[in-house]
Amino acid sequence: MIVRLSGEGQYNLPDADADRLNQLDNDAVAAVEGGDEGAFRELWGQMLELVETDGSPVGEEDLVESDVILPPRDVSFAEAQGEFTGEGLIPD
Amino acid sequence: MAGLGGRMSTVFKAKISRLLDKSEDPGETLDYGYQKQVELLQNVKKGIADVVTSKKRLQMQSSKLEQSVVKLDTQARQAMSQGREDLARAALERKTVAQTELQSLDTQVNELEAQQEQLAANEKKLRTKIETFRTKKEVIKAQYSAAEAQVKISEAANGVGEEMADLGLAIQRAEDKTDQMKARAGAVEELEAAGTFEDLGQLGGGQDDIDRELASLGAGSQVDDELSKMKAELGTGGGDSPQIEKGKEGA
């Protein structure tokens, strides 16, 4: 499974991580919706850790599409709120 | 891989796809769309230049504020040593505002710096990927049947296209941040114009009564300092009196 960290690059993760990543992702959005910045930071930290610990960086010579695209590492709570609770949720 | 991607990653994937859609077929863009690439690289350069400009502006404000903090601190001490707690308080209040602004400016300058480096690194990476695509395409054509080659080339093109779109997103983000900082820099300039961080001892427009009093206090203590220096000189200068007497003798 190829995961892109927006603004940074791609990682190759074992497919077995998909469920865990999805779970964390959905929990993080729930935290944003609940206005709980602390929980969001914690979950986002866990997601980054999962990607970095289990994943290996995709080489510069590899031209592959990502299965999952995550926000930039330094995504702010305000940005996340804009993306996931505002109009960002509604696709164009 | 059905069901891949939680809500957050789905939103981000959709963002990237929207940017990709604008560039038609990524394969064709990469093959013939030099203009598109040149355009993107120009955007990156412009993005970086904007970041640098905003950073410099904030850095200039930051060093001005640092000077204000030092001056206000000196003035507060001066006022306190002369028993003027009210004036010392006024100076310290301004110093606190300046310090808070300073901290927030420094944080922003650091953020901009990181963003600038990341943009430059990603631009380099994209160049590499585009070059790789050009080479790889020919290799694929030689190794696979036409139908297979088409699929593989299209996959590779999508990979590069995603890289391009992601860089586009990063530029947008940097621009948003730069806009916020421009607004911030403007707000700090307004505070400056209102005399919030003004060196209270300096003469100039926008001075209020406290400014003037502090200024005169500063001037007053300078006079005192000079007077005590003079006194000290005269005191040790007792030995000079023979000169005067000599003069008298000479007369």
Write a structural description.
The complex is a heterodimer of chains A (92) and B (251). Chain A is an alpha+beta fold and 92 residues long. In chain A, 46% of the residues lie in helices and 14% in strands. Chain A has helices at residues 18-33, 37-54, 77-84; strands at 2-5, 9-12, 56-57, 68-70. In chain A, helix 1 packs antiparallel against helix 2. The longest helix of chain A has 18 residues, at 37-54. Chain A is globular and about 40 Å long. The longest helix of chain B has 59 residues, at 85-143. Chain B is rod-shaped and about 105 Å long. Chain A binds chain B through residues 1, 4, 6-9, 15, 18, 21-26, 28-29, 60-72, 74, 80, 83-84, 88-89, 91-92, and chain B through 1, 3-9, 11-16, 18, 111, 114, 118, 122, 125, 128-129, 132-133, 136, 155-160, 162, 166, 169-170, 173.
Rg over CA atoms of chain B: 33 Å
Q: For the residues shown, what is the average pLDDT of chain B?
A: 75
Order of helices and strands of chain A: EEHHEEH
Helix content of chain A: 40-55%
Helical run tally of chain A: 3
Largest interface by residue count? Answer: A-B, 37 and 36 residues
Mean pLDDT across every amino acid position of chain A? 87
Oligomer: heterodimer
Radius of gyration of chain A: 13 Å
Q: Report the principal-axis shape of chain A.
A: globular
- Biggest sheet record of chain A: 4 strands, mixed
Overall body shape of chain B: rod-shaped
Secondary-structure class of chain A: alpha+beta
Distance between the termini of chain A: 26 Å
What is the share of helical residues of chain B?
over 70%
Strand content of chain A: 5-15%
* DSSP strand content of chain B: under 5%
Which stretches of chain A are poorly predicted, pLDDT < 50 over at least 5 residues?
Answer: 87-92
Helix-strand blueprint:
The complex is a heterodimer of chains A (about 90) and B (about 250).
Chain A: E1 2-5, E2 9-12, H1 18-33, H2 37-54, E3 56-57, E4 68-70, H3 77-84
Parallel strand pairs in A: 1-4
Antiparallel strand pairs in A: 1-2, 2-3
Helix pairs in contact in A: 1-2
Chain B: H1 7-21, H2 26-32, H3 34-81, H4 85-143, H5 146-193, H6 209-236, H7 241-250
Helix pairs in contact in B: 1-5, 2-3, 2-5, 3-4, 3-5, 4-5
